[in-house]
Amino acid sequence: MASKESVVLGEQYKKWVSAMADNPDMTLEETRAMFEHWGDVTGEPGGIDYIEVVANGVPCMWAKPKGGDESRALLCTHGGGYMVGSMYSHRKMFGHIAKAVGCPALIVDYTRSPESLHPRQVNDCTDAYAWLLDQGLKPEHIAFTGDSAGGALAITTLLCARDRGLPLPVASMPISPWTDMEITGGTVTTNEEKDHFVKRAVIEHMSATFLGENGNRKDPLATPLYADLSGLPPFYVQVGGDETLLDDSRNFVAKVEAAGGEIKFDVYPEMQHVFHFLAGTAPEADKAIADQAAWIKPKLGL
Questions:
Q1: Who's near 254: CB < 8 A, 6+ residues apart?
Q2: Which of the 8 DSSP states describes residue 103?
Q3: pLDDT in tens, the chain (302 residues)
Q4: E strand or H helix at 189, and its extent?
Q5: Is 70 a known active-site residue?
Q6: 3-state secondary structure of 7
Q7: Which among 28, 34, 99 has a CA at the least distance from the CA of 63?
Q8: CA–CA separation, 288 and 298 (whole Å)
Q9: Strand, coil or helix: what is 105?
Q10: Of 6, 113, 148, 172, which one is the catalytic site residue?
Q11: How many angstroms separate the CA atoms of 132 and 70, rounded?
Q12: Which helix (H) or strand (E) holds 138?
């Protein structure tokens, strides 16, 4: 049974959905301001220094745990349907992950849609990764992680880096990744009532805004289910059991396995979309992050 502490995230999602339904003319600025409160449910990790930097022209934020190994790094890509969310809304969640792993996390504040359409977002994240390499970090000492749209970017940034001929990081840990712009997963329907936020209409609106009028929903850098997934580093995918995007994870895992890749997959029962936001306040989130750390630390040599 889900902990009573975990209910808070679902309640927050219900309030947001209700606010958007009550105000159909809500501006993009108002919507973004609302989503900047995503981290309100996250406990302050403590022992983290937050330092803003510019990485190859892309605004980013370091979340550096005290005593962390600065020869290693996580590249973190925030969620929000490519439209909302930021390095500020996600700083505490990624701070918890950085602290658990024991190395700094670089949170990428990529350009959002509709100001910039696909593939600007994946290019921004790949530019930030290239910057990490330029700082002297070895690719085998870098791992990716991200949530939702950022979970997709934790996959597509690998593909883009490969296309550019960059050395690939040691691993990637997508959280509740949005991998299917075509919305073919059955759980978009079967988990409609359980998922208090990611409804079909939300997915359709965000995908159309991200891709633009002439966008291709089968572009591998937007829907990695269509990508060549062979020869990529190991993945660890985590997702909540009540998510409409559950099948986005399942189908991606099946594609990686079919391509001969290494992938670990955990479904956390009764959890909402990106329940990791409950880090420091709910046991399920703390366990998921501890599971991530236990998996990635040996790969990073920590």
A1: none
A2: S
A3: 999 999 999 999 999 999 999 999 999 999 999 999 999 999 999 999 999 999 999 999 999 999 999 999 999 999 999 999 999 999 999 999 999 999 999 999 999 999 999 999 999 999 999 999 999 999 999 999 999 999 999 999 999 999 999 999 999 999 999 999 999 999 999 999 999 999 999 999 999 999 999 899 999 999 999 999 999 999 999 999 999 999 999 999 999 999 999 999 999 999 999 999 999 999 999 999 999 999 999 999 99
A4: helix 187-190
A5: no
A6: helix
A7: 99
A8: 17
A9: strand
A10: 148
A11: 11
A12: none
Distance (Å, whole) CA 62 – CA 50 = 5
Residue 207 appears among annotated catalytic residues: no
Q: pLDDT value at position 223? A: 98
Catalytic residue of the set 141, 273, 276, 284: 273
Q: Which residue out of 243, 249, 276, 284 is catalytically annotated?
A: 243
How many whole angstroms separate alpha carbon 170 and alpha carbon 177? 19
Location of structure tokens 């990791």: 276
The dihedral over CA atoms of 140, 106, 80, 190, expressed in degrees to the nearest 10, equals 40
**Nearest residue to 168 (alpha-carbon basis) of 142, 150, 148:** 142
Q: Considering Cα of 56, then 91, then 148, then 144, what sign does the dihedral take? A: positive
- Predicted pLDDT at 178: 98
Q: How far apart are CA 50 and CA 64, in angstroms?
A: 6
Domains for the chain: give ranges and CATH numbers. 15-20+37-300 (3.40.50.1820)
- Range list of H helices, 61-148: 91-101, 120-134
What's the rounded Cα separation, in Å, for the pair 31 and 238?
27
| Dihedral (Cα; 197, 199, 202, 203), 10-degree rounding | 120
Whole-number pLDDT of residue 290 = 98
Instruction: Respond yes or no: is residue 148 known to be catalytic.
Output: yes
Tokens describing residue 117 = 């359409």
Distance CA 298, CA 76 (A): 19
From residue 62, how far is each of 211, 281, 293 by CA, in Å? 29, 23, 18
